[in-house]
Amino acid sequence: MSNESIQKKNSSITRRLYGMLQWKLFFAFFFTDLLAEVCVIGGYLYYQIVNSLGSPRLLDSVTLEGTLKSTLFLVLTDQSGTAHAVDATLPARLLRDGTLGLLAIQGICLLFSLCFDYFRVKGRLRPLSQLAANAEELSRMSFDEARFQQLESAISQVSPEAPDAHVQTNDPELQGIETALNSLLSQMREAYRQQGRFVSDASHELRTPIAVIKGYIDILDRWGKEDPQVLSESITAIKNETNHMNRLVEQLLFLARSDSGRNPLHTERFSLSQMAEEVYEESRMIDEAHVYELLREPADILACGDPTMLKQALRILIDNAAKYTNPGDTITLRVGMSRNYQPCLSVQDNGSGIQSQDVSHIFERFYRSDQARNSETGGTGLGLSIAKWIIDRHKGTIEVVSRPEIGTRFTIRLQSSL
Ligand code: ADP
């Protein structure tokens, strides 16, 4: 159907609706007038009959005598033949004038409706007409086989490994699909790159302890079997490296599970104060080299989240504080409520602090400051990225304030559990 014929059809529907509206108005006026006249005349007649004869049952006949111009009488004859004449000139004139006035008003209304309703109906039907035109447009769009083939061949030519390869059809009508596909491709490449980097970083980190273990085994093999000092030194070193590797593999597994969505949260409402106290007690027991301090608000702080995971994040922060703080120094653990009612935890130390250029990277996987790498702390560079993943999953925030040689404070804020 062409646009012209859609328009013709719309105009005819508009005209029909308009005609129906006019007739409806006309009949509404007509029946209202009729009802009003019947009520007024009937009421007046009843009133005069009761007034003159006492009861409508005594009435025999009703006639009108005279004219409206001079005088008009209403003659009521009862069953005994007595006639009662009532002067009805004024009511009849009032009725006539009232009716004429009403008809004039209704006539004007009809006139207005005749003049303007056509455009009103047309306006109301415009969205429908638009819809019909769009549907027509859509139905006219034919399936363009050649274009789809062009797109298909453009996609098949793209190699996911090539860093700058992208879909190109040179067809302006396929521009939208082309852009969406290219953006998807670059997202996939980024994920691929990240995965590759993760695997190579992980292998690199694992290579060092393996090399150390192998070195000590070689020493033992050559000279150490009979030398108790070399033997003991080698066993200690191998033990340390094995522990380090063990921790690294556990953390790698955690991150791999997180990336593939296999680390679900088991959320519940729990006491954050109690959890902080447990971590505080266990840290005091494990690490006697530092002084631990717990500052908690008197009220029990409640939070919503996975207590096991949050405990893990808190342990990572405490572990770091212990790693980068001199023996004998104090590590302070705080638990409380922020000003906007967010349950929060903080771990503060007065250890080595973090250089400003490192602060923005410490949550990245495998990132370790040069200072940390050169020290004997034995970290993996994965702890803070795990803590951040846990806090992000809880829709909370983790914030760090640090000054070299003064100390570091990490603060976790969780979502309000009110
Ligand atoms: P690591 O196993 O090396 O500690 P993390 O991911 O836990 O790995 O920490 C990343 C880096 O952040 C550390 O190597 C260290 O440089 C720095 N860092 C973290 N916590 C502290 C802290 N409390 N004091 C000083 N530096 C810290």
Which helices and strands occur, and which strands form pairs?
Elements: H1 3-53, E1 59-66, E2 72-78, E3 83-87, H2 89-140, H3 145-156, H4 175-224, H5 228-259, E4 268-271, H6 272-286, E5 291-296, E6 302-305, H7 307-323, E7 330-337, E8 343-349, H8 356-359, H9 370-374, H10 383-393, E9 397-403, E10 407-413
Helix pairs in contact: 1-2, 4-5, 6-7, 7-10
The protein binds adenosine-5'-diphosphate.
What does this structure look like?
This protein is α+β, with helices and mostly antiparallel strands. The protein is built from 10 helices and 10 strands. A 5-stranded mixed sheet has the order 5-7-8-10-9, with helices on one face. Strands 1-2-3 form a 3-stranded antiparallel sheet, with helices on one face. A hairpin with a 5-residue loop joins strand 7 and strand 8. Helix 1 packs antiparallel against helix 2, helix 4 runs antiparallel to helix 5 and helix 6 packs parallel to helix 7. It is elongated and about 155 Å long. Bound molecules: adenosine-5'-diphosphate (ADP). Adenosine-5'-diphosphate binds next to helix 7 and helix 10.
Write out key terms for the chains shown.
418 residues, alpha+beta, 5-stranded mixed beta sheet, 3-stranded antiparallel beta sheet, 10 helices, binds adenosine-5'-diphosphate
Compact description:
With 418 residues, the protein is of the alpha+beta class. It has helices spanning 3-53, 89-140, 145-156, 175-224, 228-259, 272-286, 307-323, 356-359, 370-374, 383-393; strands at residues 59-66, 72-78, 83-87, 268-271, 291-296, 302-305, 330-337, 343-349, 397-403, 407-413.
